[in-house]
Amino acid sequence: xxxxxxxxxxxxxxxxxxxxxxxxLARVGVTANAVTLFGAALTIVGGALIALDQPLAALVALLVxxxxxxxxxxxxxxxxxxxxxxxxLDSTADRLADAAIFGGTAALGFALGFGLLFWSGxxxxxxxxxxxxVRAKAESLGAAATVGPAPREARVVVLLLGxxxxxxxxxxxxxxxxxxxxxxxxxxxxxxxxxVTARALDHTKEGA
Length: 208
Known about the structure:
The protein is mostly helical. Helices cover 83% and strands 0% of the residues. The chain is built from 7 helices and no strands. The chain has helices at residues 8-27, 32-51, 55-78, 84-112, 115-140, 152-169, 172-207. It is globular, with a radius of gyration of 18 Å. The two termini are 27 Å apart.
C-alpha cells in the first residue's frame, strides 16, 4: 500500500521499530483496543489544545496519540491478528482524531479572527473525510482505491511538522501552511481515488 508523501522505507521502518514494544505490551496484557481508545482520547485532547492556542502541549498529545494509532496494529499482529471489533474501533478513532484536529484548527482560526486558518481547517476536515470514504465505498464494491499522495498517515505527518514549526517558532502561519497543504493533498487524493474507482467499476461492467 502506498504511503503517499511519506517514504515507504520510513513507514515500514517505524512499524519494525515498534514491534518489540508491541510484543512487550502484549505480554503484560495490554490490548490493541485499549491502545486505540487511549490514542483517540489523546488526539481529541490535542485538538482541544490547538483550539486553545497551545501548540507545544498539542504537539505532545498528538505525537503520543498518533503513535498509539500505529502501536495498536503492532499489538494486534503480536497477538495473532486483529479482530473485526478492533478494525471498527480503529477506523472510528481515526475519524474522531481528524475531526478533533481540524475542528480545533477551525475553532482557533475563528477565535483569532484568522480567516485563512478557519477555512483551511474546514477544508481539511471535509477533504480528509472524503478520502477514507471513497476507499471504503470502493472496497465494498470490489474495487481498490489506495492511490494518492495523502493517505491518513501522510496527512498526520504533515500536520505534525506544521504544528512543530508553530510550537518552535511561535508563528501559527507555519501551521496554516501545513493545514492548507493537507487540505489540498487530500483533495487531490480524493479525485484520484474517485477516478481509479470509476475506471475499475466501468471495466468490471464491460467484462461482465
